[in-house]
Design goal:
With 284 residues, this protein is an alpha+beta fold. 27% of the residues lie in helices and 27% in strands.
Length: 284
């Protein structure tokens, strides 16, 4: 069992089957650098007071949550009133629908969480749901309330456990038409398309997130260490950046076909991946 604390405990329900489960965040925030605002003359961090215009600083126990129903007018709610809102989804995630694994547009996905059974007694039923989802290649949908709001939840197998991904509601997604309406519907020229397609095929491989590094965070960390070294605090770790600047990259692209063909030549040492259809033809 992980050392992290679960962010939600409740039941995963399929019809009459209810399984006690726990949710853990699948992502880490500590991998990135964070900064504080500092008062340069004193070297001390900036703090912010809660202030009411015309009144001045106020105590925390004088603050309520308010919904602005008209400009400058609010409905005030006590924390106890909000906590008293009864939602079944605060303790139970019921799978009410199943869809194909590729049917959900990626734009709807929000955050990912690991779902694990709370104890050994729950594992048998947990495995049944996990393996049934895997066998049918389906994703289970339901709703879950946590951290002050209710989410659409998508459940799918992940290793020996389950993955829960929260989804945006339809009204949270901007329509693409206003952004894309000015783009011509004309098709790309066939010769250019053929070269670009071949380049994509040559660069196609299995997804491996480990191949991608956060260069910006690495550069910031190196900058911080350089500053520390100048103060005699810590040895700096040098970083080399050989990537061309944006301006250099633009100047190198003289024409589209030339750039695509040059890219292909650079990839020439790599064998072109075989498509599934080609493999089937040879097998037959």
């Amino acid at each position: 069992m992980p050392s992290a604390r679960p962010i939600w405990k409740g039941q995963l329900r399929l019809s009459l089957v209810a399984i006690p489960v726990e949710l853990y965040s699948a992502s880490k925030t500590g991998a990135r650098l964070s900064f504080r605002q500092i008062h340069e003359p004193s070297g001390k961090p900036i703090k912010y007071e809660k202030v009411v215009p015309g009144v001045g600083p106020v105590d925390t126990d004088e603050i309520l949550k308010g919904f602005e129903y008209e400009k400058g007018d609010y409905v005030l709610l006590q924390d106890a009133e909000i906590d008293a809102v009864k939602l079944e989804t605060r303790k139970t995630l019921e799978l009410v629908q199943f869809v194909g694994g590729c049917e959900i547009d990626p734009i709807y996905f929000d955050k990912s969480y690991y779902v694990v059974p709370q104890d050994e007694l729950s594992e048998d039923a947990f495995r049944v749901i996990r393996d049934a989802l895997r066998a049918t290649e389906k994703v289970g949908l339901g709703q879950i309330a946590m951290r002050g709001r209710e989410y659409i939840a998508a459940i799918k197998p992940c290793g020996t456990g389950l993955m829960l991904e929260t989804l945006h509601y339809e009204d949270e997604i901007r329509k693409s038409d206003p952004f894309f309406s000015g783009i011509s519907k004309a098709k790309a020229e066939k010769e250019l398309l053929d070269v670009a397609t071949e380049l994509i095929e040559r660069k196609t491989s299995a997804f491996d997130a480990g191949r991608f590094k956060d260069h910006y965070t690495d550069a910031l960390r190196a900058l911080v260490q350089k500053k520390l070294k100048s103060k005699g605090k810590r040895k700096a770790i040098a970083t080399d950046t050989d990537e061309p600047s944006a301006a250099e990259s633009r100047n190198n692209v003289i024409d589209l076909m030339g750039a695509l063909k040059s890219s292909l030549e650079g990839e020439g040492r790599k064998p072109k991946p075989k498509s599934a259809s080609t493999t089937r033809k040879k097998a037959s």
